[in-house]
Each structure stands twice: as C-alpha cells, then as structure tokens.
Sequence to fold (100 residues):
Amino acid sequence: MKPSHIEHIGIAVSNLEDAVSFYEKVFGLKCYNIEEIDDQKVRTVFFMVGQTKIELLESTDPEGPVGKFIAKRAEGLDIAFLHPGSTSGVLIEICEDKKR
Fold:
C-alpha cells in the first residue's frame, strides 16, 4: 500500500491542555476541533497545517485498541493501529476517509 497523502499526524501526549497551549503559543496554531471518544478512552484535539491535520491524543488506556479496526473514529474516519512491537517502537495509526 502506497500512501496517497497525509490526512493527519497523531501525537500522543500526557497532558492535553498543556500540549494545546504549547502548539498554540509556539506554532501559532488554533485548535479547531475537540472530541472525547469514550469507547476508545481518548480525548483528541485537531489543528490544521496547510492540508494536513495534527491530532493530539491523550489516552486514559495505555494499551489502546492496537490492531483493531474501528468503525467510527475522530472525525468519522475508519482506522487501524499497528503495534509498536512490529514498527520499530512507534505506534502507527492508519486511517481511511471514505469521502475521499
């Protein structure tokens, strides 16, 4: 599978409020969307950088839904996670926007 574009880059953070403040002050970005996804036990915020989004995630479940497809995710995307054990220590989220 060859990626066609970068829809968003997700960054896990330990404190969402501190991270939002940092991105707004240092990079001059404005948060345009905040979501709490109860079944995934995460809170997310989004920033736009050109055509690419930056998503900051604060998880309350360190294990997460690794390896599972999820029908509805933040902003209505279908996603899957690749476990860090198979990706050189990095949790990778792959998403599909069925509208594109």
The two ends are 16 Å apart (CA to CA). The chain has one domain: 8-96.
